[in-house]
UniProtKB/TrEMBL annotation:
SMART domains: HTH_ARAC. Residues 164-262 form the HTH araC/xylS-type domain. It comes from the Bacteria. It comes from Mucilaginibacter frigoritolerans. The lineage of its organism: Bacteria, Pseudomonadati, Bacteroidota, Sphingobacteriia, Sphingobacteriales. Keywords: DNA-binding, Transcription, Transcription regulation. This is AraC-like DNA-binding protein. GO terms for molecular function: DNA-binding transcription factor activity; sequence-specific DNA binding.
Length: 267
Protein backbone atom coordinates (compact mmCIF):
# COMPACT_ATOMS: atom_id res chain seq x y z
CA UNK A 1 0.00 0.00 0.00
CA UNK A 2 1.34 3.41 -0.92
CA UNK A 3 0.44 6.93 0.12
CA UNK A 4 0.65 9.64 -2.50
CA UNK A 5 2.24 12.98 -1.74
CA UNK A 6 2.04 16.26 -3.57
CA UNK A 7 2.59 19.51 -1.70
CA UNK A 8 1.62 17.63 1.43
CA UNK A 9 3.22 14.45 2.69
CA UNK A 10 0.63 12.86 4.94
CA UNK A 11 1.73 10.09 7.25
CA UNK A 12 -1.21 8.31 8.84
CA UNK A 13 -4.99 8.27 8.23
CA UNK A 14 -6.44 10.92 5.94
CA UNK A 15 -7.37 14.27 7.47
CA UNK A 16 -10.98 15.24 6.91
CA UNK A 17 -11.69 18.83 5.82
CA UNK A 18 -14.00 19.26 8.80
CA UNK A 19 -12.85 21.88 11.31
CA UNK A 20 -12.83 19.41 14.17
CA UNK A 21 -9.36 18.06 14.94
CA UNK A 22 -10.08 14.42 15.71
CA UNK A 23 -6.47 13.23 16.09
CA UNK A 24 -3.14 14.72 17.13
CA UNK A 25 -1.30 16.22 14.16
CA UNK A 26 2.40 16.99 13.75
CA UNK A 27 3.14 19.71 11.19
CA UNK A 28 6.58 20.33 9.67
CA UNK A 29 6.85 23.16 7.19
CA UNK A 30 9.50 22.35 4.58
CA UNK A 31 9.21 25.71 2.85
CA UNK A 32 6.81 28.63 2.53
CA UNK A 33 4.55 29.81 5.34
CA UNK A 34 1.17 28.78 6.70
CA UNK A 35 -1.22 29.86 9.42
CA UNK A 36 -3.85 28.08 11.46
CA UNK A 37 -6.57 29.21 13.84
CA UNK A 38 -6.84 27.07 16.98
CA UNK A 39 -8.36 27.84 20.37
CA UNK A 40 -9.01 31.47 19.54
CA UNK A 41 -5.42 32.15 18.50
CA UNK A 42 -3.67 32.33 15.13
CA UNK A 43 -0.44 30.35 14.86
CA UNK A 44 2.04 30.78 12.01
CA UNK A 45 4.74 28.43 10.83
CA UNK A 46 7.64 29.37 8.56
CA UNK A 47 10.18 27.22 6.74
CA UNK A 48 11.84 24.72 9.07
CA UNK A 49 9.34 25.24 11.92
CA UNK A 50 7.11 22.54 13.37
CA UNK A 51 4.62 21.79 16.11
CA UNK A 52 1.74 19.65 17.32
CA UNK A 53 -1.98 20.36 16.94
CA UNK A 54 -3.83 18.63 19.76
CA UNK A 55 -6.91 16.50 19.17
CA UNK A 56 -10.46 17.27 20.28
CA UNK A 57 -10.04 20.91 19.32
CA UNK A 58 -11.73 23.17 16.80
CA UNK A 59 -9.42 24.73 14.27
CA UNK A 60 -8.85 25.54 10.64
CA UNK A 61 -6.05 26.23 8.27
CA UNK A 62 -5.90 29.77 6.93
CA UNK A 63 -7.20 29.82 3.36
CA UNK A 64 -4.57 32.36 2.31
CA UNK A 65 -2.70 31.67 -0.90
CA UNK A 66 0.63 30.97 0.79
CA UNK A 67 -0.85 27.98 2.60
CA UNK A 68 -1.65 26.26 -0.69
CA UNK A 69 1.88 26.87 -1.96
CA UNK A 70 3.59 25.76 1.24
CA UNK A 71 5.28 22.38 1.23
CA UNK A 72 4.47 20.61 4.46
CA UNK A 73 4.75 17.21 6.04
CA UNK A 74 1.96 16.04 8.34
CA UNK A 75 2.10 13.05 10.66
CA UNK A 76 -1.23 11.89 12.08
CA UNK A 77 -1.04 10.28 15.51
CA UNK A 78 -4.37 8.47 15.67
CA UNK A 79 -5.56 6.67 18.80
CA UNK A 80 -5.10 3.07 17.56
CA UNK A 81 -1.49 3.85 16.61
CA UNK A 82 -0.83 5.56 19.96
CA UNK A 83 -2.27 2.69 21.98
CA UNK A 84 -0.18 0.18 20.06
CA UNK A 85 2.92 2.36 20.49
CA UNK A 86 2.32 2.83 24.22
CA UNK A 87 1.90 -0.90 24.73
CA UNK A 88 5.07 -1.62 22.76
CA UNK A 89 7.32 0.89 24.54
CA UNK A 90 5.58 0.85 27.96
CA UNK A 91 5.19 4.61 28.24
CA UNK A 92 3.23 5.92 31.22
CA UNK A 93 1.03 8.95 30.75
CA UNK A 94 2.07 11.98 32.78
CA UNK A 95 0.25 15.22 33.43
CA UNK A 96 0.86 18.27 31.27
CA UNK A 97 -0.11 21.69 32.60
CA UNK A 98 -0.47 23.47 29.28
CA UNK A 99 -3.84 23.31 27.57
CA UNK A 100 -2.66 25.12 24.44
CA UNK A 101 -4.16 23.64 21.26
CA UNK A 102 -0.88 24.12 19.35
CA UNK A 103 2.43 23.10 20.90
CA UNK A 104 5.65 24.37 19.37
CA UNK A 105 8.83 22.36 19.65
CA UNK A 106 12.15 23.97 20.48
CA UNK A 107 15.09 23.92 18.08
CA UNK A 108 16.91 20.60 17.78
CA UNK A 109 18.60 18.52 15.13
CA UNK A 110 16.72 15.27 15.62
CA UNK A 111 13.46 16.29 14.00
CA UNK A 112 14.95 18.07 10.93
CA UNK A 113 17.23 15.07 10.43
CA UNK A 114 14.24 12.73 10.49
CA UNK A 115 12.43 14.86 7.93
CA UNK A 116 15.48 14.82 5.66
CA UNK A 117 15.73 11.06 6.06
CA UNK A 118 12.34 10.65 4.34
CA UNK A 119 13.68 11.79 0.98
CA UNK A 120 15.39 8.53 -0.12
CA UNK A 121 12.15 6.60 0.42
CA UNK A 122 10.16 8.56 -2.16
CA UNK A 123 9.78 6.88 -5.54
CA UNK A 124 9.53 8.64 -8.91
CA UNK A 125 5.79 9.14 -8.40
CA UNK A 126 6.37 10.88 -5.06
CA UNK A 127 5.13 7.94 -3.01
CA UNK A 128 6.44 6.03 -0.01
CA UNK A 129 5.53 2.51 1.00
CA UNK A 130 3.23 2.42 4.03
CA UNK A 131 5.64 0.19 5.98
CA UNK A 132 8.30 2.90 5.91
CA UNK A 133 5.68 5.48 6.90
CA UNK A 134 4.89 3.48 10.00
CA UNK A 135 8.55 3.18 10.99
CA UNK A 136 9.11 6.89 10.55
CA UNK A 137 5.98 7.71 12.52
CA UNK A 138 7.25 5.62 15.43
CA UNK A 139 10.67 7.24 15.16
CA UNK A 140 9.15 10.74 15.26
CA UNK A 141 7.05 9.95 18.32
CA UNK A 142 10.09 8.52 20.13
CA UNK A 143 11.99 11.72 19.36
CA UNK A 144 9.15 13.96 20.56
CA UNK A 145 8.89 12.06 23.85
CA UNK A 146 12.65 12.14 24.31
CA UNK A 147 12.75 15.90 23.81
CA UNK A 148 9.65 16.56 25.92
CA UNK A 149 8.70 13.62 28.16
CA UNK A 150 5.65 15.50 29.45
CA UNK A 151 4.04 15.03 26.01
CA UNK A 152 3.08 11.55 27.16
CA UNK A 153 0.26 13.34 28.97
CA UNK A 154 -0.96 14.63 25.60
CA UNK A 155 -0.53 11.60 23.38
CA UNK A 156 -1.66 8.92 25.83
CA UNK A 157 -4.71 10.70 27.20
CA UNK A 158 -7.65 8.82 25.70
CA UNK A 159 -10.41 10.44 27.73
CA UNK A 160 -13.38 12.04 26.01
CA UNK A 161 -14.04 15.75 26.73
CA UNK A 162 -15.79 16.46 30.03
CA UNK A 163 -18.88 18.60 30.52
CA UNK A 164 -18.06 22.31 30.25
CA UNK A 165 -19.86 25.67 30.25
CA UNK A 166 -22.05 25.61 27.14
CA UNK A 167 -22.62 29.36 26.75
CA UNK A 168 -18.95 30.29 27.02
CA UNK A 169 -17.92 27.56 24.59
CA UNK A 170 -20.49 28.43 21.93
CA UNK A 171 -19.83 32.17 22.11
CA UNK A 172 -16.17 31.40 21.49
CA UNK A 173 -16.59 28.76 18.78
CA UNK A 174 -19.75 29.56 16.81
CA UNK A 175 -17.78 30.36 13.63
CA UNK A 176 -16.54 26.79 13.18
CA UNK A 177 -18.31 24.76 10.53
CA UNK A 178 -18.86 21.51 12.40
CA UNK A 179 -21.91 19.40 13.10
CA UNK A 180 -24.15 19.62 16.16
CA UNK A 181 -22.83 16.17 17.07
CA UNK A 182 -19.29 17.59 17.26
CA UNK A 183 -20.38 20.56 19.38
CA UNK A 184 -22.18 18.18 21.72
CA UNK A 185 -19.11 15.92 22.01
CA UNK A 186 -16.74 18.81 22.72
CA UNK A 187 -18.99 20.16 25.48
CA UNK A 188 -19.23 16.74 27.12
CA UNK A 189 -22.85 16.03 26.29
CA UNK A 190 -24.99 13.64 24.33
CA UNK A 191 -26.76 15.23 21.36
CA UNK A 192 -30.10 15.23 23.19
CA UNK A 193 -28.58 16.78 26.33
CA UNK A 194 -26.78 19.38 24.22
CA UNK A 195 -30.00 20.43 22.48
CA UNK A 196 -31.88 20.53 25.78
CA UNK A 197 -29.22 22.61 27.53
CA UNK A 198 -28.85 24.85 24.48
CA UNK A 199 -32.57 25.64 24.52
CA UNK A 200 -32.33 26.52 28.21
CA UNK A 201 -29.32 28.82 27.73
CA UNK A 202 -30.14 30.51 24.41
CA UNK A 203 -33.91 29.91 24.06
CA UNK A 204 -33.32 28.79 20.46
CA UNK A 205 -32.35 25.65 18.62
CA UNK A 206 -28.60 25.27 17.95
CA UNK A 207 -28.97 25.52 14.17
CA UNK A 208 -31.10 28.66 14.27
CA UNK A 209 -28.81 30.34 16.81
CA UNK A 210 -25.66 29.49 14.86
CA UNK A 211 -26.98 30.90 11.59
CA UNK A 212 -28.20 34.12 13.18
CA UNK A 213 -25.01 34.56 15.20
CA UNK A 214 -22.81 34.12 12.13
CA UNK A 215 -24.95 36.43 10.01
CA UNK A 216 -24.91 39.22 12.60
CA UNK A 217 -21.13 38.92 12.73
CA UNK A 218 -21.06 39.13 8.93
CA UNK A 219 -23.23 42.25 9.00
CA UNK A 220 -20.81 43.87 11.44
CA UNK A 221 -17.76 42.94 9.36
CA UNK A 222 -19.26 44.24 6.12
CA UNK A 223 -20.73 47.43 7.57
CA UNK A 224 -18.02 48.41 10.06
CA UNK A 225 -14.87 46.71 8.78
CA UNK A 226 -15.46 47.00 5.01
CA UNK A 227 -15.00 43.26 4.58
CA UNK A 228 -16.18 41.51 1.41
CA UNK A 229 -18.69 38.69 1.61
CA UNK A 230 -16.49 36.51 -0.61
CA UNK A 231 -13.63 36.86 1.88
CA UNK A 232 -15.49 36.13 5.11
CA UNK A 233 -18.24 33.59 4.44
CA UNK A 234 -16.03 30.52 4.94
CA UNK A 235 -14.46 31.93 8.11
CA UNK A 236 -18.00 32.33 9.47
CA UNK A 237 -18.92 28.69 8.94
CA UNK A 238 -20.72 28.87 5.58
CA UNK A 239 -19.75 26.35 2.91
CA UNK A 240 -21.01 28.27 -0.13
CA UNK A 241 -21.21 31.97 -0.94
CA UNK A 242 -24.63 31.49 -2.53
CA UNK A 243 -26.00 29.94 0.67
CA UNK A 244 -24.48 32.73 2.75
CA UNK A 245 -25.98 35.45 0.53
CA UNK A 246 -29.42 33.80 0.54
CA UNK A 247 -29.47 33.49 4.34
CA UNK A 248 -28.16 37.07 4.74
CA UNK A 249 -30.93 38.52 2.58
CA UNK A 250 -33.57 36.42 4.33
CA UNK A 251 -32.55 37.81 7.73
CA UNK A 252 -31.73 41.43 6.86
CA UNK A 253 -33.87 41.93 3.73
CA UNK A 254 -30.84 42.99 1.69
CA UNK A 255 -27.86 41.25 0.18
CA UNK A 256 -24.26 41.65 1.41
CA UNK A 257 -23.53 43.58 -1.79
CA UNK A 258 -26.44 45.94 -1.14
CA UNK A 259 -25.24 46.53 2.42
CA UNK A 260 -21.74 47.32 1.19
CA UNK A 261 -23.24 49.66 -1.43
CA UNK A 262 -25.27 51.52 1.20
CA UNK A 263 -22.11 52.20 3.17
CA UNK A 264 -20.36 53.58 0.07
CA UNK A 265 -23.36 55.86 -0.65
CA UNK A 266 -23.22 57.24 2.90
CA UNK A 267 -19.48 57.92 2.59
Amino acid sequence: MKTSVNKTCLIGPAIKPEQFIAEHLFFYLVNGSMSGYYGGETYTLKSGEYGIVRKNRLGRMDSAKENHQAEKIIFVFDEPFLKKFQDKYKFISSRIKSDEPFLRMGDNELIPNLIRSLKPYFDLQGQIDKAFFELKREELLLILLKLRPELSGVFFDYRIPGKIDLEEFMERNYKFNVSIERFAYLTGRSVSAFKRDFKTVFNQTPNRWLVKKRLHEAYFLIERKNERASEIYQDLGFEALSHFSFAFKKLFNLTPTELAGQKKDVN
